[in-house]
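User: Last request for today: this protein with adenosine-5'-triphosphate, please.
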Amino acid sequence: MPDHAVELRNVWKQFPGPAGELVTAVKDVTLQIADGEFFSLLGPSGCGKTTSLRMIAGFELPTQGEIYIHGRPMGRTPPFQRPVNTVFQSYALFPHMTIGENVAFGLQMDGVSKPEIAQRVQEALAMVRLPGYEGRRPRQLSGGQQQRVALARALVKRPEVLLLDEPLGALDLKLRKEMQLELKRLQREVGITFVFVTHDQEEALTMSDRIAVMSNGEALQAGSPSEIYERPNCRFVADFIGETNFLDGAITAHTERTATVLLPGGMTVQAEVEQSPRAGSNVTVAVRPEKAHIGAQPGAVNQLNGRVANVVYIGTDTHYDVVLPGDQHLRVREQNHRPGSAPLAAEGDEVTVSFSANAARVLTE
Ligand SMILES: Nc1ncnc2c1ncn2[C@@H]1O[C@H](COP(=O)(O)OP(=O)(O)OP(=O)(O)O)[C@@H](O)[C@H]1O
Ligand SMILES: [Mg+2]
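Assistant: Here's the final one, the structure of the complex with adenosine-5'-triphosphate:
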C-alpha cells in the first residue's frame, strides 16, 4: 500500500488574535489525499482553507499535529525543501521579464543548467497550451493565458504535489469555466496530485476526485462529489452543497438502515440513517428538491400532503414551494423535459408530494 501523497494528522493552527486571545483557524483536521488525486478544500470564507494549504506548503507550521508528504513527516521543513509548489490567486508574473524568463526563474534559482532549463520551459509551456510564447511579455497575454503561465511556472519545477489557492478567482465566469476544464485535463495528463482551494461548490464538484468540506476550521466530511452530495453527514454539508429541504422531527422507530420520523404536523417520513439513532431523539431530515415529486407516485414510500404556496417557472425546471401541516416548507423541483409541459399544480392547490426513503436522510447534527 503506497503512502498518501499528503496526509494531515490531527492538525491544529492557532493564531494570536487582536486582543491577545487565540484564534483557532484549523481545528483537529485529519485528511488523507491519495497520489494523483484532484482534491479540493471547499468551504466558506474564513473556514481555514488557505491556512491548511499554507501548512502543507510550509509557510505556516501547525500548532499541533503533523503533515506528511508521501509518508515523510514535514516537521519544520522549510517551504523550498518540500516537494510541493503553490499557485496563488494573485499569480503576479514579473512584468519586465518575458514569459520564458518567468517560467525559467525558479529553475535558475536552483542552478539547473541552461540547456535543461530551455527544454523544461518548452515542455511546461506546451503542457499549458502556450507553446512558442517564450518571448512575449505578461501584458501581451490575456488573464487566462497569464494564469496558465503561472501554472507552467509551478509545473516546471516538477513538484510531487501542486497546491492551488483559488487560482481562478481573478477570472471572469466564462474564462473560469474554460480554465476549470483545462486544469482538470492538465492534472490528468501530468498525473500530479492537486490540492485545490475554492469556496465555489460548483467548481469543486466539477473538478475534484474528492472534496473535503470545511467549516469553522474543521473538515466535516471528505468524499467524492457524489458521496458528499448524496450522503452528506451533517446539516452544514447538506446545506452548503446544492439545495436541500430540512424537515425537523423526532424518531419514533428505526431499523438498521431506515428510520420513521414524526413531523410536527402529524405525518411521518421514512428516511435513511447512517448510524443507529435513539428513538425519540430530535433530528433533521434532508430531502433534495429534485428527488421529490408532485403527485402520488406508486412505489414512493413517502407521500406527504400539503398546499402549494408558490410556483416558479425557470425554463429548465419549475419550482414548487409546498407548505406541510405544521408549517414546514418542502421545495420540489420538477424538470420540464416534455415539450410544452404544463405546470403540475398551481398556487393554492392541495397536492401530494412523494419521495422514496433513500431520497431522505436523517441528519443528527
Ligand atoms: N496570520 C493570521 N493571524 C491571525 N489570524 C489569521 C491569520 N491567518 C488567518 N487567520 C484567521 O484564521 C481563519 C481562517 O483563515 P483562512 O485564510 O485560512 O480562511 P479561508 O478559508 O482561506 O478564507 P477565504 O475563503 O476568505 O480565503 C480566519 O478567521 C482568519 O481571520
Ligand atoms: Mg483563503
